[in-house]
Amino acid sequence: MATDRLEPRRILVTGVGANPGFGLTRSLTRLGHHVVAADANPLAPGFLLPGITPQLIPLTTDPGYGPRLAQLCLHHGIDAIVPAIENDLPPMLRMAARLEEAGVRLWLPGPASVHACIDKAAFQQVLTEHGVPTPRTWWGGTLDQVPDDTELVVKPRRGHGAQHVHFVDNRRHALLLSELVPEALVQRRVRGVEFTADCLVDRSARASVILRRRNLVKAGLATVSTTFHDPAVLDLVRATLRAVRAEGLCCVQGFIQDSGAHTITELNLRIAGGFPLSEAAGADLVGQMVAGLFGLPIDHDQLAYRPGVFLTNYIETLAVGDAADLERIVITEEPAA
User: Fold this and answer.
1) Which of 73, 91, 133, 192 could form a disulfide with 78 if both were Cys (CB 3.0 to 4.6 A apart)?
2) How far apart are the C-alpha atoms of 178 and 182, rounded to whole Å?
3) Are residues 207 and 184 in the same domain?
4) Which of 150, 79, 92, 87 has the alpha carbon at shortest distance from 119?
């Protein structure tokens, strides 16, 4: 199926202030779709991408989040919403029936899958129950069982974007940080070659997977990455997707350890920040996601990719100007209540 034959759609993308939403917005506009770019930060860089409609939305913890999203869909004739940040998933699940009744399409997995991926403790439990290797983890009442003979990672149970993540080499520091990190969780640190798998799971649970080595990582983002093939890693990623019952566009992270063992550390129910490498390697990731979003069959042959393709990222100045001018641009068009 040629996804370039799909008629242009009006798609609302949330979280355009971070790499996943920024890159997704750019890819959708290149495919000819019109994007309403939404973020809670009036200085979100995605607001400056050409050809988009920038819209400010509240944080998901704000009672006005749902009404604002509904207003935007009505005012702009939105055909579909694609969240590019994890925080948007729970409120969107609650709104899904109303949005779909209004003709707005979403492609989200069930509540149990969302919970398992947003809560790192729940994710560790699900993977352990299904025999998928994942780092040993302690939280809540089990923190007193943290060992003192290994490197450890302290992170929030419901964090994202590498925020509040700390690496320590002893139990005392881990326990100290667990009092400072919100809803702290402690994991045994894994070393080796880190990878991300860009995944698209269709409605019959068939998954296409594109593997990328994270050759150089800074602040949680892969600044240098390379595509590769590895049957064992591919099988493990697919087992992870089945365990969580993932659906639609998502990404899995893990390690190939020096011992040769493979470990899964995370599954995000959104597009990955480094997905442009998968597209550069030949996978029509966003195009096929849009097809599935609108109920068309996914052509998994279009998700094949070439190994050995690399991508480098660097910080680039997108725009320089008066912050007040940008805020005026974003807030100019307010939908009627």
Assistant:
1) 73
2) 8
3) no
4) 87
Q: What SS3 state is found at 56?
A: strand
Q: Which phi and psi (to 5°) does residue 202 adopt?
A: -80, 180
Angle at CA of residue 284, ends 278 and 286, nearest 5°: 90
Other CB atoms within 10 A of residue 172 CB:
10
Alpha-carbon torsion, ordered 123, 241, 289, 104, to 10 deg: -50
266-135-211 Cα angle (round to 5): 40
What domain range is 148 assigned to?
A: 136-188
Q: Which residue from 34, 102, 96 is spatially nearest to 73, judged by alpha carbons?
A: 102
pLDDT of residue 242: 97
| Domain co-membership, 197 together with 172 | no
Residue 130 lies in a domain: no
Residues 149, 168: contact at Cβ < 8 Å?
Answer: no
3-state secondary structure of 42: coil
Cα gap 113→130, rounded to integer Å: 14
Say whether pLDDT at 1 is over 50. no
Where would I find the H helices in 197-253?
231-244
Classify residue 336 by its DSSP letter. Answer: P
Buried b (16+ CB within 10 A) or exposed e, 272-298: bbbbbbbbebebbbbbbbbbbbeeeeb
pLDDT in tens, 256-286: 998 889 999 999 999 999 999 999 999 999 9
Measured CA to CA, the distance from residue 17 to residue 23 in angstroms comes to 10
Q: For the chain, what is the domain count?
A: 3
In the predicted model, what is the mean pLDDT of residues 151-165?
83
In contact, 292 and 202? CB cutoff 8 Å: yes
